[in-house]
Amino acid sequence: MLQSKDYPFQYDLHVHTSQGSLCGRSTGAEIAKAYQDAGYAGIVITDHHFGGNTRPDRNLPWEEWAEAFCSGYWDAKQTGDAIGLQVFFGWESGFHGTEFLIVGLTPEWMKQHPELRDCSIQEQYQLVHESGGLVIHAHPFRRRPYIKEVRLYPDYIDAVERINASHSNPAVADKPEYDDEAAAFAKKYHKPVTAGSDQHDSVNLRGAGICFKRKMQSAKDLVQAIKNREDSILTDGAVFYPGNRPETIEK
Length: 251
Description:
Blueprint: E1 9-15, H1 28-38, E2 42-48, H2 62-69, H3 71-83, E3 86-95, E4 98-103, H4 107-111, H5 121-130, E5 134-137, E6 159-164, H6 165-168, H7 177-188, E7 193-196, E8 209-212, H8 219-227, E9 232-235, E10 240-242
Parallel strand pairs: 1-2, 2-3, 5-6, 6-7
Antiparallel strand pairs: 1-8, 3-4, 4-5, 8-9, 9-10
């Protein structure tokens, strides 16, 4: 994994497990071990939520569905706690192919908000934002058969996924221009930027993430570091990119 001496604490903000995502191929425990071995400080488990490629049966009552959904996170966290990897809770919400990473809330909070099943993009932002969470537009310019059109919502996000390694890492890259477009989008609307691997298994880690000079104390700390544009850099696992800087905050 590419690592920086000046920004040694690397966090992958886009990670899936087989327990929560139909497209996941490794358990949370397997994922946590792989990331710890690779030298990461931490990860955010962002399995596909109710409106995306989720694994739990949508016919379950909400609390039962949420419990099953969170099992990948709990599996990763239990292992992470034992081996020294920080594991934070999140999810990837989906709205007909437009997807968002949600960070900074808890499984308990999610269980208490069944309205997440049917909320709009605006309602999601208000609900998450008011509760202290972070809404990141995931791979905003990705084109795939399941993404019928690029839809942008600058008023309903806190940050932009500037780097998604499935686009830009040379080992797996298919469309690096998608990340270039994301960078321009973030700059236009003065949004902080993040990076993630979009990892679905525990082998051949892509190595992406956002890198800080210090270790985060909690998921809330990570959220504030991004919102406040704390000094950071980004990587797709092969190259470093500019991240956030305090002086870039619009006055």
